[in-house]
Amino acid sequence: MNNAWHTEMLAEGRVSDRRIGDRDIVDKVRRAVLMQRLPPGTKLPEVTLGEVFGVSRSVVRKALTRLASEHVIDQRPNQVARVRAPSIEETRETFDARRLVEGEVVALLAGRLPAEPLAALAEQARGEVSAFERGDEPARIEHSLTLHHLLAEHSPNRVLGAMLTDLVLRTSIVIALYKRAGLASCYLEGDHSRLLTHLEAGDAEAARGDIHDHLNGLEALLDLSPREARIDLKSILGRAPEQA
Amino acid sequence: MNNAWHTEMLAEGRVSDRRIGDRDIVDKVRRAVLMQRLPPGTKLPEVTLGEVFGVSRSVVRKALTRLASEHVIDQRPNQVARVRAPSIEETRETFDARRLVEGEVVALLAGRLPAEPLAALAEQARGEVSAFERGDEPARIEHSLTLHHLLAEHSPNRVLGAMLTDLVLRTSIVIALYKRAGLASCYLEGDHSRLLTHLEAGDAEAARGDIHDHLNGLEALLDLSPREARIDLKSILGRAPEQA
DNA sequence: GACGAAACTTTTGTATACAATAAGCCCGCC
DNA sequence: GGCGGGCTTATTGTATACAAAAGTTTCGTC
Question: Distance between CA atoms of A141 and B143, rounded to whole angstroms?
Fold first, then answer.
């Protein structure tokens, strides 16, 4: 069958020599899912992963548990773990949740951000623009992700920050999944720099508005029409016998 | 040392005969933490738990991982898992986060709640009142928890619902932890029934306001004065060598 | 040729053994 | 008597073996 992905997995970075733990597996699988190298529904048997990474099932299992708690994979009892395929409905809900949480985070952040993190954010924004202009989509995604990750990290409210980290990952996954066919990249010019301006100026409500607009714009770039529910249909009829 | 808690653990319910998995361990430990039978800082060695529940370390480890992801315990590498002691700052942040999320959930819920779940909510509210009146604090907590749990479950937005479930647990833990000394119970008369009225009437913003007031009231019943930081001090100086 | 059952294979669940690390302890030294 | 080094012990990290369950194939029957 589809036995080609281990080579891709290994290509993700040198694996064999370094001391590798469950953390590395989590990072690499997460990244591969994000980059669509591991499409939804892909089976991830424990022994195979263990062979690829040169560790035993124990550590693989721990990694899979973590990935499941991050909503990257689905883990049902007595069944092989599979890359998750969030439904269209869940996609909408994830965006709604992120609007709420990230809006609040940037509102809290407005005007309270020291110069150093602000510079780091600006650098990511610049990096994203440049990556977009030279057509390097993976790099652009990386910069965008890092930017939002930084926002989460610097959230004055760490509980909300942790939630935002989770939501950023989940939205990124569904963006990769539901991106409109012809679209080269889900990029909205100026959104990030506008946000940073308002953050620096200390305008909390403007920053919240920026986040809302940004996420609305992103969501609009997706193909979430229910008539095109082939993905859902396929994953539910073909693979998932029950869904509570 | 403190080897008495396994008996308490077992008293939590019949354990030996039934088929017990990691889920049961998670439930029982969570409950014990909630009821303050397992105070913060309590060590939870894997072998001991395994002996108590009659399972091997494998399943205990899985249970501990779950508990850590629920923020019930702390799991640092090469160290025994311990019951978590959220700081005062984290307590405030948890309340803030819950205000945001639960407020949104009830706003979404207002007017869209069918009769059946509404009745279930009302029953929990009544149960809470009656438990309070007869001075049965554990039962009162149980009813209150179930009520908020039901709100989370019926959230139209399941992503927010799952987040709320987590936040309800965490706030309950810190309430138990920081409850003012003399206080018999953290109960605010009428709050829940008022919320239900507004939910049924479909007044989203009133419901959101009810949640805000309720959580503000609850937080006010806690002793979060930084001068009384003995709990933090004790747990940090006495047990935790490093804190990232 | 289609259907169904039984063996067979694959894969996960659990227990256990061994290695590595951290904590506690004792003893010698200053 | 206090302090530090090394030893002992307790506990977690990892690998592996076996059991149970799910999935797959094959074969016989209708």
Answer: 46
Choose from A75, A88, A159 for mutation: most chain B CBs within 10 A. A159
pLDDT digits (tens, 9 = 90+) for B132-149: 999 999 999 999 999 999
Interface of A with B (CB under 8 A): 62, 65, 69, 90, 93-94, 96-97, 100-101, 104, 157-160, 163, 167, 170
Is A100–B96 a contact, with Cβ atoms under 8 angstroms apart? no
Rounded Cα gap, residues A223 and A180, in angstroms: 5
pLDDT at B76: 95
Single out the residue of A145, A163, A146 nearest to residue A102, CA to CA. A163
Give yes or no for residue B56 having a pLDDT over 90.
yes
Domain segments of chain B as ranges: 5-84, 88-226
Which of B159, B164, B171 is most worth mutating to test chain A (most A CB atoms within 10 A of its CB)?
B159
The verdict on a CB contact (< 8 Å) between B97 and A62 is no
By Cβ distance, the residue of B157, B167, B170 closest to A93 is B157
Which one-letter DSSP state was computed for residue B83?
Answer: E
Mean pLDDT is lowest, of A36-45, A162-171, B163-172, for A36-45
Is the confidence at residue B216, as pLDDT, over 70? yes
Cβ within 8 Å of residue B187, ≥6 positions away: B128, B132, B140, B144
Can you give the pLDDT at residue B237? Answer: 45
pLDDT tens-digit series, residues A145-166:
999 999 999 999 999 999 999 9
Would you say B174 and B86 are in contact if contact means Cβ atoms under 8 Å apart?
yes
Nearest residue of chain A to residue B21 (CA atoms): A77
A127 confidence band (pLDDT: 50, 70, 90): very high
Distance B80 CA to D23 C1' (A): 39
- Residues B206 and A59: their CA atoms lie apart, in Å, by 49
Residue A38, pLDDT above cutoff 50: yes
Q: Which residues of A touch B212 (CB under 8 A)?
A: none
Shortest CA to C1' contact from A57: nucleotide: D15
pLDDT of residue A236: 44
Quote the CATH superfamily of domain A88-226: GntR ligand-binding domain-like (1.20.120.530)
Domain A5-84: top CATH class: mainly alpha
What type of residue is B69? S
Give the closest residue to C21 (Cα–C1′): B78
Q: Hey, is A43 helix, strand or coil?
A: strand
3-state class of B222 per DSSP? strand
Three-state SS letters, A144-191: HHHHHHHHHHCCCCHHHHHHHHHHHHHHHHHHHHHECCCCCCCCCCCH
Q: Is the pLDDT of residue A243 over 60?
A: no
